[in-house]
């Protein structure tokens, strides 16, 4: 006879990570992101820090943790650009919150779901960056470039699958 | 009340974090008066945050750059030497050709410098540069910045021009002890004063969000052509005058800024693939000693070539010299047949009068009009 318990699906699929992985994995993504376009310029299409935000937010399923993780990674990215601090911080903080919230509703282990999710969040981040530049900073010279964003979102979705598979090994069930 | 915070804690945390960031963003936005080339938008605290972010990344960048440099060194110095001999020959030929060109330009350059000195023009020569290696990028396609492995300990300062042998690439933005960030010309917040070399029209080249270089402060002008070369004007006080920037690849009306045109400039330097750069750390009003030496050598070589040509010309047979009297340039025009008076060499040369004339001498025969058919020979008729 099957054993029933009161453990919810949320609790079943909720994971945590060791502090080392929590710090080093996003840092590695940022470092590779900084170094890769120097070796091959088209790699600047990728946004590995965004993939790290989505992965950790979906795995932890905590909107607060997702928001904080996204904000910190985004602010770090802002520090390496010539933009004011907060552009990537706001965008990635919101993405972290949304990814953690969506993690309750879908099967985040399914590769197709993962690819679609990353594609959608890449486009959402582009839209948020466009809004921040136009709406908050009043920089109307910032173009939307839809084709560029679609290519970037597709590239992110393709890279996300092996990256998430690799990061799955560091998950620890709560 | 307690349950409200517990129930909406996720949303409240999100709102709080977003509000803090929006306020921080608003505090960092530069005022319109600060939006000038060379103006530094960052405050001290923001610079400190950037320093922390860069300090975390730089050791890794140096490590990977050092490793890739070693691999490239082994490859290029020990393995990939197939075409070295041919390249060496080509380079030798190029040196010879460039030396000849240098000789031909030396006199004009010296004359130009003398005239500029006479007119009191302020000259700008690059006196000192620091070579630096590119160790990283900003990691975002929305920000065209690179990191280099030299900092203020090597003499770098903010707003110094950075170039490659091909042309200008940007300016130094933030400088720390052993590294610095360079804002590339194609970043949307970057710009430089430029001159179009064929028409001498001045403009401002700016970066755009899609990484192109644009001049969009000029109205339509028929003198601006595709293929025109663009060099720095020196008016921005950052880039010295005359450094190559790029060439015009497209001219189109700018729908957002009528009546201005959008002139697209293709940079000479490949801004997406930079390995080594030169930071211009010093500008002087006199030619640097090494350049002076080169110029003197070129002038001496040009003088030597001219003297050799004169010696060869003296030894070769030539036509009689024209009158050297400037007041009477057509003095020996009588020796010419036809031509225009006062213009030397405009007619055929006439032979000089004979020293011992005889019946065969030109002009000794009577004119043909005075001769009659069947008439007895005159005294002047030859006696055979």
General description of the model:
The complex is a heterodimer of chains A (174) and B (384). Chain A is mainly α. In chain A, 70% of the residues lie in helices and 2% in strands. Chain A is built from seven helices and two strands, in the order αβααααααβ. A two-stranded antiparallel ribbon of chain A has the order 1-2. Chain B contains five helices and 14 strands. Helices cover 33% and strands 23% of the residues of chain B. A six-stranded antiparallel barrel of chain B has the order 1-2-5-4-3-12. With 384 residues, chain B is α+β, with helices and mostly antiparallel strands. In chain B, β3 (161-163) and β4 (168-175) form a beta hairpin. The interface between A and B is large, with 48 and 50 residues.
Strand neighbour order, sheet with most strands of chain A: 1-2
Helix content percent band of chain B: 25-40%
Q: Write down the oligomeric state.
A: heterodimer
What best-fitting shape of chain B do the alpha-carbon axes yield? elongated
| Percent of residues in β-strands of chain A | under 5%
């Amino acid at each position: 006879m099957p054993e029933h318990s009161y453990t919810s699906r949320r609790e079943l699929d909720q994971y945590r990570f060791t502090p080392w992985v929590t710090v080093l994995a996003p840092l590695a993504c940022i470092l590779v992101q900084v170094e890769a376009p120097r070796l091959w310029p088209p790699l600047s299409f990728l946004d590995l820090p965004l993939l790290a935000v989505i992965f950790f937010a979906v795995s932890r399923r905590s909107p607060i943790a997702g928001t904080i993780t996204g904000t910190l990674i985004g602010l770090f990215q802002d520090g390496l650009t010539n933009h004011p601090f907060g552009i990537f911080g706001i965008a990635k903080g919101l993405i972290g919150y949304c990814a953690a919230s969506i993690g309750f509703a879908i099967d985040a282990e399914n590769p197709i779901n993962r690819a679609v999710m990353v594609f959608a969040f890449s486009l959402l981040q582009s839209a948020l960056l466009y809004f921040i530049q136009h709406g908050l900073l009043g920089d109307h010279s910032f173009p939307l470039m839809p084709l560029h964003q679609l290519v970037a979102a597709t590239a992110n979705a393709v890279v996300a699958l092996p990256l998430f598979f690799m990061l799955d090994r560091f998950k620890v069930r709560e | 009340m307690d349950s409200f915070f517990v129930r909406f804690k996720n949303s409240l945390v999100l709102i709080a974090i977003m509000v803090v960031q929006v306020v921080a963003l608003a505090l960092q936005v530069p005022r319109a008066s600060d939006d000038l080339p060379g103006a530094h938008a960052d405050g001290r605290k923001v610079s400190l945050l950037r320093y922390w972010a860069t300090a975390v990344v730089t050791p890794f960048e140096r490590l990977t750059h050092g490793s890739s440099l070693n691999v490239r060194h082994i490859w290029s110095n020990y393995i990939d030497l197939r075409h070295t001999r041919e390249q060496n020959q080509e380079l030798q030929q190029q040196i010879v050709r460039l030396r000849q060109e240098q000789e031909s330009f030396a006199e004009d350059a010296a004359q130009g410098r003398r005239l500029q000195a006479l007119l009191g023009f302020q000259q700008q020569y690059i006196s000192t540069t620091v070579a630096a290696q590119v160790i990283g990028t900003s990691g975002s396609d929305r920000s065209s910045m690179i990191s280099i492995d030299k900092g203020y300990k090597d003499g770098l300062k903010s707003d110094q021009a950075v170039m490659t042998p091909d042309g200008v690439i940007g300016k130094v933005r933030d400088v720390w002890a052993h590294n610095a960030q360079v804002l590339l010309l194609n970043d949307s917040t970057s710009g430089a004063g430029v001159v179009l070399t064929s028409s001498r029209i001045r403009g401002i080249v700016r970066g755009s969000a899609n990484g192109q270089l644009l001049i969009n402060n000029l109205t339509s002008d028929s003198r601006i052509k595709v293929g025109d070369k663009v060099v720095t004007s020196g008016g921005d006080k950052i880039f010295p005058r005359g450094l190559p920037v790029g060439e015009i690849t497209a001219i189109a009306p700018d729908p957002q800024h009528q009546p201005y045109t959008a002139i697209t400039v293709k940079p000479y330097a490949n801004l997406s693939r930079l390995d080594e750069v030169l930071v211009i750390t010093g500008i002087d009003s006199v030619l640097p000693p090494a350049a002076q030496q080169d110029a003197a050598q070129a002038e001496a070589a040009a003088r030597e070539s001219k003297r050799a040509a004169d010696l060869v010309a003296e030894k070769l047979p030539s036509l009689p010299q024209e009158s050297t009297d400037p007041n009477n340039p057509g003095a020996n025009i009588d020796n010419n047949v036809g031509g225009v008076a006062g213009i030397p060499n405009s007619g055929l040369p006439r032979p000089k009068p004979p020293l011992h004339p005889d019946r065969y001498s030109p002009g000794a025969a009577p004119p043909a009009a005075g001769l009659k058919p069947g008439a007895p020979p005159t005294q002047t008729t030859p006696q055979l």
